[in-house]
Amino acid sequence: MIAKLWGRLDDILDDAVVVDVQGVGYHAFCSGRTLRRLPAAGAAVELHIVTHVREDHIHLYGFIDTIERDWFGLLQTVQGVGARVALALLAVIEPADLLVVIAAQDKAALMQANGVGGKLATRILTELKDAAGSVNLGSAALAVEAGAGGDVGDAVSALVNLGYRRGEAAVAVASAARGLGDGAGLQDLIRASLGELST
Question: 78 and 29 share a domain?
C-alpha cells in the first residue's frame, strides 16, 4: 500500500499528476484543490496517497495535505459517493468548510460538484451529520478551529471540556457561528452551540 510519494513533479494533467520517484513515474488522480496548489512541473513535491486496489486496476489518489485525504475517505463512506464524486466535492468545497456545509445542511453547496444531485446531496448531509457527532474527524475538525478564529476555537474547546466529542462540538460551533455572523462573541457562540447540540 502506498501512503505517500515524494519526488519530482514530472507532469500535471487535467485530473492527475505524474510524480517521478527515483526514475519511476507514479500516476495519481488529484482534486482541483490539490492541482491548484502544486508547484510547477520539475519541482519537488510531496503527496499524501490513498491507494485503491480493485480486480481490474490499482489507482492512486494524491492530496496536498492530510485534511483533504481524510475527507476523501470520509465522503466515500456515504452510499453513492465514489472516488470521482469525492474528488469533485473537494474541488468545489475546501475541506475546512465541509463541516460548516454539513452543519448548515447546505444542499446547494454540495450540488455545485459534478455528479451530485439533490438526492445524493441530502444523503451526504444526513449521513455525515451523524458521522460528525460520533466519529473523531481529527485534522479536519482541528482545521475548522484553527481557520475560523480565536472565539470559535475557544468555543469548541469549551464544549469539549463540557464532555462533548470534538467533531460534534466543531459542527455545532460552525453552525452557530454561521447563524450569528461575524460579530458574535464567545459567550454567544457557546450559548448558540449548546442550543444546536440540544436539538
Answer: no
Helix (H) / strand (E) element for 8: namely: strand 4-12
Taking every pair of Cα atoms in the chain, the longest distance, rounded to a whole number of angstroms, is 57
Coil/strand/helix, residue 168: helix
Residue 51 structural domain: 4-63
Domain identity same for 104 and 139: yes
Asked whether 28 and 5 are in contact (CB, 8 A), the reply is yes
pLDDT at 140 exceeding the cut of 90: no
CATH value at residue 30? 2.40.50.140
Task: Give the end of a domain, one of 44, 63, 82.
Answer: 63
Contact between 21 and 14 under an 8 Å Cβ cutoff? The reply is no
Say which CATH number the domain at 163 has.
1.10.150.20
Predicted local distance difference test score (pLDDT) of residue 189: 86
pLDDT confidence of 94, banded at 50, 70, 90?
Answer: confident
Q: Which three cell numbers stand for residue 156?
A: 469548541
- Determine the residue type at 174: A
SS3 letters for 170-199? HHHHHHHHHHHCCCCCHHHHHHHHHHHHHC
Helix (H) or strand (E) run with residue 30 in it: strand 24-30
37, amino acid identity? R
Quick one: 71 and 26 in the same domain?
A: no
How do residues 166-176 score in pLDDT, each as one tens digit?
777 877 887 78
pLDDT tens, 113-130?
A: 999 999 999 999 988 876
